[in-house]
């Protein structure tokens, strides 16, 4: 490992450039992943809206939409796992590059000190290098401890789909009831004209009264 760091700042500019190129490539890939994440998130929202809209009228269509939503969610999880791995690689490369530059500065300073202090003990230098190597080893062990996210094949729980479908059915019913509560109520108005039958009955009643008065 030490030889690798020495070659990094030992006049081989191609190593520095390749490190920079790798970091740029990783960051470009991360941008692509973020765009894909946004696309998948919109797809998930669209499938959920479809499932909710058909939770009562067309349960077959609603169930199919929920399945597509689940698959999209798993794809989003896998994509986020990949994104995490790339971010880890970028961080590792940047850290390694920083450490190499630090080592270069230390080497230069060590040379200057050697010229000034010829009597500097080599044991002290070895101890410093050994401590740095131990720290680098610890950093490598931490990076290796980060496990990759592995996903098995898509396994959709039918009971989970049914529960989510029932929840959406209740949501749609609540929306319908809420809309009904706010609907205006139109009551029939009072009749503006008197029915013909009522008029005729009134005339007959008045005629009977007149006949009764004449009889008297």
TrEMBL record:
GO terms for biological process: late endosome to vacuole transport via multivesicular body sorting pathway; vesicle budding from membrane. It is found in: Endosome. One of its GO terms (cellular component) is multivesicular body. Residues 183-216 are annotated as: Disordered. Its main location: other. The keyword Coiled coil applies. Residues 16-43, 122-171 form a coiled coil. It comes from the Eukaryota. Belongs to the SNF7 family. This is Vacuolar-sorting protein SNF7.
